[in-house]
Amino acid sequence: MATSIIIILGLACSLGLSLIHHRVRLMNGVLAMLLLMMVMVSITAFSQRYFWINRFWLLGLTLAGCLLVLVSLWIGVQLLQTAWMTRHNHRYRLVNGTIAAMFISILVLIGLVALVIIKPMWWLQVIVVGLSFVTSYFVFWWLAYGIGFLIYKHQNQVVVTQQYILVLGAGLNYGNQVSLSLKARLDKALAVADKLDHPWLILSGGQGNDETLTEAEAMAAYCERKGYPQQNLVLEAASTSTAENMAFTKAWLVEQGITPTEGVFVTSDYHTYRAALLAQKVGVTTRSAGAKTEAKAFWHAYFREYCAIMFRYRWWHMLAILLGMILTGLIFVN
């Protein structure tokens, strides 16, 4: 028990220091997840000494597990519905394919577990253990990313000293019209700008293959129609990704003598955390204002963000999964 307490205190201190020195960091979510898991394991071990405490604790875990399953099913339904609705949109082809592959893998795993129960075979058990480990790994990172997102959202705030607002672009409808998600970002940016006395409004977005003008130009036209001063609009029309949005904007800010961290960026709410991680790496503001996403589209968009961050560190994840499967295999064999 003493060892568990030391580990819990160590994780708690590490998380506290990480939050103080690194407000935007993936490790915050990982440390929080490890701390939560360690606390649950320790309480479970402690409760075994006392019959009624153990029964109440197991009941609580069972109820929490049932709730988690129900929430997971609801999120799964949301993902499938949105994937089906966007099946003809080429922009979502990759993420929809990933969603389909994920659900097929889960069904295969459930089928294999049932088969092992009916007819246990050692080679089938090895496959089930391996697939279970991989599934658990991705679930861990899904939850860790979510906790990191919530921590960032709680600590994030816009202050009145911001010198600029950066609006991250999004795809245009029909090649030249502001989409609903981009409109929500612009409306949010204009609302923030009113509170900050109309600072520089940097509109960042290049031109896609299916677009007849740049996203920056479309955003500028929208802001002008809404009455924002044209002289306070800055068009950054060369970027094709969030990282380039940040990097090209930083170059303009440095050229103008504006401190890159003295601003706020505006994007969709689901995108704020990953964008902040990129902003921190580039060296611009990590403060954000998130435009609300429709509930039915949020989880599909959030899943895209999760996939993007996992892909960004894909080689590390592949190494971790390989080492984990080797270790799991050795434990299983022994």
Automatic annotation (TrEMBL):
<dbReference type="GO" id="GO:0005886">
    <property type="term" value="C:plasma membrane"/>
</dbReference>
<dbReference type="InterPro" id="IPR014729">
    <property type="entry name" value="Rossmann-like_a/b/a_fold"/>
</dbReference>
<feature type="transmembrane region" description="Helical">
    <location>
        <begin position="57"/>
        <end position="77"/>
    </location>
</feature>
<feature type="domain" description="DUF218">
    <location>
        <begin position="163"/>
        <end position="307"/>
    </location>
</feature>
<protein>
    <submittedName>
        <fullName>YdcF family protein</fullName>
    </submittedName>
</protein>
<dbReference type="GO" id="GO:0000270">
    <property type="term" value="P:peptidoglycan metabolic process"/>
</dbReference>
<keyword id="KW-0472">Membrane</keyword>
<dbReference type="Pfam" id="PF02698">
    <property type="entry name" value="DUF218"/>
</dbReference>
<keyword id="KW-1133">Transmembrane helix</keyword>
<feature type="transmembrane region" description="Helical">
    <location>
        <begin position="124"/>
        <end position="152"/>
    </location>
</feature>
<feature type="transmembrane region" description="Helical">
    <location>
        <begin position="98"/>
        <end position="118"/>
    </location>
</feature>
<feature type="transmembrane region" description="Helical">
    <location>
        <begin position="6"/>
        <end position="24"/>
    </location>
</feature>
<feature type="transmembrane region" description="Helical">
    <location>
        <begin position="31"/>
        <end position="51"/>
    </location>
</feature>
<dbReference type="GO" id="GO:0043164">
    <property type="term" value="P:Gram-negative-bacterium-type cell wall biogenesis"/>
</dbReference>
<dbReference type="InterPro" id="IPR003848">
    <property type="entry name" value="DUF218"/>
</dbReference>
<dbReference type="InterPro" id="IPR051599">
    <property type="entry name" value="Cell_Envelope_Assoc"/>
</dbReference>
<keyword id="KW-0812">Transmembrane</keyword>
<feature type="transmembrane region" description="Helical">
    <location>
        <begin position="315"/>
        <end position="333"/>
    </location>
</feature>
